Input
Amino acid sequence: MKVLVLGASGFIGGAVTRRLIERGDDVTVLSRDPSLAIPGATVARGDLGDPHSIASAAEGADAVVHAAGIVSARAAARALRWTHIAGTENVVNACRHARVQRLVHLGCSDVTLTNADRMHWDERRHPPKPFGERARTLALAEEIALSAGLEVVALRPAWVWGPGDTSRLPSLSREALAQGGVHLCGDGDTFLSTIYIENLVDVVLRALEASEASASAYYVADPEVLHAREVFRLWSEAVGLPPPRSGPPRWLSWPLTALRGHGPAGLAPEEVILRTRSALFDVNAAIGKLGFDPKITMQQGLRALTAWVKEQGGAEAIAERERAPADERSVDAQVAAAGGD
Output
């Protein structure tokens, strides 16, 4: 299969790219970084903001994996809209131009983020309005993809973790090192839904070929049901960080956030919701239509994460990889590169 991957320099896109290459697919990745080189893949120069470069890279492809997105809720609203909404519109238009029918859209379970528990939510449940600009732009991007008239599979992974995490793990590591542990809201007695990176990649590969799964969104999450305090404790042990710290009671965390504009330990409001509200997702649709069957357990993933962190130089080295949230200047640079106004 010939596949174009967008977001290959990121955590999820990079993992998908490696697996596609390993199984012998013809892989092209789109990058605006002239120094990027991925053994086994063709690197096409271009940008998510330039539909012409996407269409050129997609010529002759059997499918496109759109894994480009912004993880941080602290990113500028314009950056979120440019990347998620305009970027997805460009991907859809490029697929049409290049006559690529199959599109796997990597979104996030945060498309339904709300200041309430999401217990056993399936794809039919939606809040009246997702909380925060990131959630709203992710939701609109998914809607754009699903209404494109293509064979679209939209995935909504839970909190993705594992070796190679260059998105959330660096900020968690920096927080834990600076604060003496990842900050819990209350005692961390809410449920936190997660998915190990290789289990997510497995379902992405299935989505590329599943004949009856298109035009739908699917939650994907691992079967382990753990409280937030236990998840953060296990991750902290694996990375070599101090154990998590309890914070203000859950019932007090949100009023403090609303009053200050940020939560305990400087957490953004969206981050407070993720740590104070339970989230467990019904993955029966993904099991039935995509054959979702996560193979790697939490303990196996933790061992792999520990080994990777050691290879990278430890928790401090991971923390140094934290990137500044996308701002207005990053959008201006992309607009200029795409020849926009």
